[in-house]
Structure formats: C-alpha cells, structure tokens
Write a structure and sequence with these properties.
globular, 15% strand, Rossmann fold, 253 residues, 11 helices, alpha/beta, 34% helix
Amino acid sequence: MKRKGVSASGRIGARPKLEHCAVSPKPRYAGSPARPLVVFCDFDGTIAEQELILQIFERFCPPGWETIARAVGERRKPVGEGIAELCGLIPSSKKDEIIAFAKGAIRFRDGFLEFLKFCRPNGLQFNVCSGGVDFFIQPILEPYTEYIDHIYSMAANLSGDRIRLQTTDSCDTCGLCKAKVMARHPGTIRILIGDGVTDVHGAREASLVFARGKLRGYLDQDGIPYQSFESFHDIIGALSRFQGKPHEDQVGC
C-alpha cells in the first residue's frame, strides 16, 4: 500500500543517542544483524535546488520579511519562531497562488528521482523531513509518493485570516525538530541528508550525515562528522558501496 505524506504529530519518546559514523571505504561483513536503514531528507535546498520557502516569502510577504529570515539564518532567532512569524504575514487566501507558484518554481536537485528509485531495492526507507510547510510541499511531491515512506513537515492552519503553523514536534529552536522525528524510528540506522540550520538537531542524532551548503559550516562548528554532496548521484555512489542491505558495521556504528 502506498503511504501518504503526513505532517509530524503524536507522542515522542526519549531520543536514543547514537554514535556518529562515516561510510566505510569498502563493505565489511562481520556477521552483525542488519538494522533497517532510514533516510531523512530535507526539502528546501536539498530536494529542491533552491530555498523554495524563501522564494515564497519573497513573493508573498510584505516588505521587511528579510530581517526575520536573516536572523534565522544567522541563528539569532529560533527557526520555528521565525518561520511561524513569516507565515503569519501571509493571508490564508493566498494558498492556491502559493501552490501554483511553488510548482512552477521548483527545481529538483540532480539525481533526485534516481535516488528515490535506488532506495527501496537497496533496503533504504526514504522519508522527507522538512521544516517547511505541508500545504505546498505535498502537492509538489505527489508524483513521487510511490517511492516515499512519509513526508514529515509543519502543518498549516488556514482557517483564519493568516497562515498559522501547528508545531507539535517542536523544540526550543525548531518548528519541526528532526531529532524528534528520528525518535519515531528506534533501532534503525539513520541517514540525514540536508543543507541548513533546520538539519542540525537531526545531524546530532544521525548515524550518517550527507551535508551541503551552510549545514557543513554548522557541523564544523559543532564537531559533527559528515560527507559532502552536491547531487543525489554523489549519495548513490557513497551508499552503493554497501552492495545491498548494509550491516551495522558497514557504516561504522
């Protein structure tokens, strides 16, 4: 049965602490039992080449929105707070315009479809895990849902005059905390793919991190190991070393 995209919600248990690890240069088979591999992939700046949500804010927010966005990017304002403030500047009546704009503007990162097709045959569950908003992410990804296990994103409440966000999986800084989403998948090897500040908490809990853009600087500051990528072909190449469903020791765990 095809699983539909969902916004993050529900009770979150204690977050398991995992060792950070890197892909081994060559596959190793030491007889350890395989654990499920679960991919948590960011949307803006990762699946999408551009920061699509920023383009939406630029198009639909009144002047002055850049000050809020800059404070978020410089880690002076919590991400969840900033995104909620920016969405709150946009009338709910703009929903259909935003969806149409997003569908027309999206540029998928090179190799995205190939990576989706790579995952399941190679034992990986693919989840989209985004600090963006459900009402425009899900329509964009609708053609690919047969390859996607879940879409985790922030839910929008469009019943009022302005867009309001529901942040059931929030933390002190994130509107959707990727570490909390990862906690829904205990006993797994967690692979994070991302590019920015919303991915930092998830990177702390991941077994393996693929990073690009500003995320690399944040992880360098925090001392979190990662592998750089620019296209999904880079990630396919790295994970292909597993030659099928990997054992725990193949990712150094």
